[in-house]
Amino acid sequence: MGSLFHLDSHIIFFAFFLDLLIGDPPKIPHPISGMGLLIQKLENPIRGLPFFSERVKGLFFFLVIVIVIFTIALCLTQVLFILREKSLLGEVILIFVTSQFLALRGLIDAGKVVENYLERGLIEEAREALKALVGRDREHLSKREIQRAILESYSENLNDALIAPLFWALLLGLPGLILYKTINTLDSMVGYKNERYLHFGFFSAKVDDLFNYIPARLTALSMILATALVLGIKTALRSLYWTIKYGPLHSSPNAGYPEAALAGALGVRLLGPAYYGGKLHLKPYLGEDFLSNLHNTIPMSRKLLYVASFLGLALLLLINTYKA
Asked: Hey, how many other C-beta atoms are within 10 angstroms of the C-beta on 214?
């Protein structure tokens, strides 16, 4: 039985394509939902602890969630490896479980739902569906702002949904993959810079930044290479230039790089001011607005997303081969 902290490249390969093929089967409980439920259940009891600052409570909360889920991940991996030794079915189950922590299909499907509503002129429905992709206030977004939000989500979440999970899976096996998704889910639920979570979610947000530092830059590189293949070297050079120029302007140390790479590929301007919880956040613009019609860029962004995901997978598997 191999190390619990190693996943063979073929497991990653087939898990990637299984996610693209079936995504998240609706009748099977999803592990990320379980993580979210645990986070919800433990937040208020830990917040209620006496004599501690919000930041200390947040650190304790982070450690409890991570230790509990990582322990479960180790036990699950042990069971799956035993099943794998006994039959081919065990290998198939391992591939399926791994695929459930990847979310490229879910990301693309969520974007298509919003896009379809826009094509039918159903702006209110598009705003409501957009909540699956972004956390900003959606009530007053225009059609153009919704289209821009789709592009931003595609670029940033290519990292969170695929490249970063693959990176940690190849580095630390299935436990590493589950650890990353735990930290990423914590950040998505408590990592906000608002009054409620600024201190309580501090450690969750900072550790998520750390875990995404290398993957986010690999995501940007994959997008630039995809641009070269799909749109040509000249456009890829613009994507590279915008990544270097605009990527560091984002308030996140990571999100700006893949977003700027896609902006450069499409020749559009992303990000900018947005409302969160009723408050205006003056985020910088990424890129220059060459195109007035964002609608035509969404199908191209989806194509780039697919190509970048294949290239990212190939790059990580190549690294894994030399590492082994």
From this structure: 15
d(CA 168, CA 104): 16
Model pLDDT for residues 165-199, shown as the tens digit of each residue: 999 999 999 999 999 999 999 999 999 888 899 99
Q: Check residue 136 and report its DSSP letter.
A: S
**Does residue 49 fall inside a structural domain?**
yes
For residue 172, give its domain range: 9-323
Report how far residue 241's alpha carbon sits from residue 284's, in angstroms, rounded to the nearest whole number: 17
Which H or E run includes 317? helix 297-323
Contact status, residue 220 vs residue 254, Cβ threshold 8 Å? no
Please state, in angstroms and as integers, the Cα–Cα distance from residue 95 to each residue in 30, 80, 190, following that order: 15, 10, 30
User: In residues, how long is the chain?
Assistant: 324
pTM higher than 0.70 for the full model?
A: yes
Nearest to 221 by CA among 316, 289, 302: 316
Q: Does some domain include residue 3?
A: no
E strand spans, 230-283: 270-271, 274-276, 279-281
Q: Which amino acid would we find at residue 156?
A: E
**pLDDT > 70? residue 324:** no
Judging by beta carbons within 10 Å of its beta carbon (0-12, 13-18, 19+), is residue 21 exposed, middle or buried? exposed
Who contacts 87 (Cβ-Cβ below 8 Å, separation ≥6)?
none
Query: Is 2 inside any structural domain?
Result: no
CA-to-CA dists, residue 59 to 12, 63, 104, 240, angstroms: 32, 6, 30, 37
- HSE (side-chain half, CA atoms, 13 Å) at 186: 30
Number of domains the chain is built from? 1
DSSP state of 87: -
What does the alpha-carbon distance between residue 142 and residue 156 come to, in Å, rounded to a whole number?
A: 21
